Amino acid sequence: MRLLSRSTPLLKSAVLTTLFSFAALSASAQVTRTRVSSDPFTVAPGQHATEVEPHTLAFGSTLVSAFQTGRIVNGGGTDIGWATSLDGGSTWTHGFLPGVTKGEGTGPYDAASDPAVAYDAAHGVWMIASLPISNTSSTPAVIVSRSVDGGLTWQSPVNVTGNVSSSDKNWIACDSTSTSPFYGHCYVEWDNPATGDGILMSTSTDGGLTWGPAKSTANKATGIGGQPLVQPNGTVVVPIETTGISAYSSADGGNTWTKPVTVSNIQSHGEAGGLRSGPLPSAAVDGAGTVYVIWEDCRFRSGCKTNDLVYSTSSNGTTWSAVTRVPIDAISTTVDHFIPGIGIDPNTSGSNAHIAIHYYYYPVSNCTKTTCQLYVGYISSSNGGTSWNAPVTLAGPMQLGWLPNSQNGLMVGDYIGTAFTNGVPHSVFAVAAAKNGTKFNEAMFTAQGLTTAEAGAQLSSAGDRPLHHLSDVVEHDRPEKGIHPPSKRSARRASK
Fold first, then answer.
1. Which residues contact 449 (CB under 8 A, 6 or more apart)?
2. Burial category of 439 from C-beta neighbours within 10 Å (exposed 0-12, middle 13-18, buried 19 and up)
3. Distance (Å, rounded) from C-alpha 376 to C-alpha 358?
4. Which of 2, 53, 309, 491 could potentially form a cystine with 326 if both were Cys, beta carbons 3.0 to 4.6 Å apart?
5. Could you give the C-alpha distances from 150 to 115, 316, 435, in angstroms and in order?
């Protein structure tokens, strides 16, 4: 069924705006939550009225978010949806990528997954990288959809590689610093489950029209969930999950890639209730080039019973700071935090860096599918993480039975993103409501009225120390596309 093509009129965001005030652990705030997209696809095997796994990026006053629409249990969505704001999040236009899936009506693939957004200022092009999935044949490892009109219409995708049997967890970033020697270079990362998650990179220098050969790291390392970040000097740093959290880099515009260095081990508690999650990293870079990488981790919690959000920083991608806890709540609480998305105001840096984090959480970690209560939270710092404002709840409670299923559990997404326009933080995130019979009610929302300005009593984790050191173990998650040897799967969690 054809629902939206390049010639179809754009859909304006539905008028579903709610003014709400939620107590958020130790704070409350009044913000406006607006739905920016919902799933119109009714074609099988998609779970109708579901949208999951958004990534959001900003440049100037423009915000572009991409996400799976119509989640399919075995992997991917019926299509990739998008939502664009040209005025810093005040109003939104949304639609669905053409030329990708059969479910949308104009593409060759059975599903698409893992959307990520980039902007190439040198060529004036927005890009959405995604993972094409076919039930009967091999596909390109990654495809890239391009927009040359500010994210309002999208072209049919270009292939980053030739056809392969498997690929997973792609990401994309572009060098948009005009003084960089590699201004206009764009970088796509993915892994190959067939080789135990072998890390691969490809580079484009023409606005995403063509892509160079797939390149491994210097030691042919394996990993999953890499997020390329470009420093102002043109160096690309890629935090990634390996047997812990690691990072590799390129200082020559993507011609060569170093072997990964260790950022930290992972000590992670598995979320209750069958929710799909894990310690995949989220990363951002400040205006001076300092890289922040954040993930869920239980090292500060007695018995590893709940996860905090923790982070490490680096100015060069090779030397990393000690792991620091984001003090959302006291380490004695039952709150479990996971699926973080970090963003940093690009006009700030160092001790003045404005940091914003969106995340999901359970107030009580020890719960079941029928008793778990899922929320979306937000926390910010105006001084590079020295202290933090009290957290704010943006959505919830949600019951897990309202969420679509996937091959790795009930799903809101493996990641979310946070981005800034003119100093204001934004995200797009999945919010579910009660089903109408068997029909889901999960869509994409954004919250307006957020800030990073220091307000009220500040929170600090300066005195917190890890309580234990657990050994990483291997978790055998199924990839979105293809099959891989389970014995070679990257470490995901240390305990459950």
1. 29, 30, 31, 32
2. exposed
3. 7
4. 309
5. 18, 32, 35
Is 25 within 8 Å of 361 (Cβ atoms)? no
CA-to-CA distance for 240 and 294, rounded, in angstroms? 11
- Along the 496 residues of the chain, how does pLDDT read in single tens digits? 222 222 233 444 443 444 443 334 334 457 899 999 999 999 999 999 999 999 999 999 999 999 999 999 999 999 999 999 999 999 999 999 999 999 999 999 999 999 999 999 999 999 999 999 999 999 999 999 999 999 999 999 999 999 999 999 999 999 999 999 999 999 999 999 999 999 999 999 999 999 999 999 999 999 999 999 999 999 999 999 999 999 999 999 999 999 999 999 999 999 999 999 999 999 999 999 999 999 999 999 999 999 999 999 999 999 999 999 999 999 999 999 999 999 999 999 999 999 999 999 999 999 999 999 999 999 999 999 999 999 999 999 999 999 999 999 999 999 999 999 999 999 999 999 999 999 999 999 999 999 999 999 999 999 888 986 654 433 446 678 765 433 333 333 333 2
Helix (H, G, I), strand (E, B) or coil at 273: helix
Q: Which CATH architecture best describes the domain 14-493?
A: 6 Propeller (2.120)
Closest CA to 116 of 37, 227, 245: 227
Helical spans, DSSP H, in 110-191: none
Here the tokens at position 320 are 């990393």
CA-CA-CA-CA torsion sign (316, 421, 81, 19): positive
- Closest by CA to 482, choosing from 197, 158, 187, 216, is 197
Q: Alpha helix (H) ranges present in 230-305? A: none
Residue type, 169: K
**Order of strands, sheet of 442-448, starting from the edge strand that comes earlier in the sequence:** 17-24, 27-37, 442-448, 428-432
As given in the structure block, the two tokens for residue 158 are 């270009």
Phi, psi of 486 (to 5 degrees): -60, -30
Question: Six-digit token pair at 22?
Answer: 């939620």
SS3 assignment, position 442:
strand
List all residues 6 or more positions away from 433 whose beta carbon is below 8 Å from its beta carbon.
398, 402, 441, 442
| Separation of CA 222 from chain center | 20
Which of these, 430, 447, 446, 360, lies nearest to 47 by C-alpha position? 430
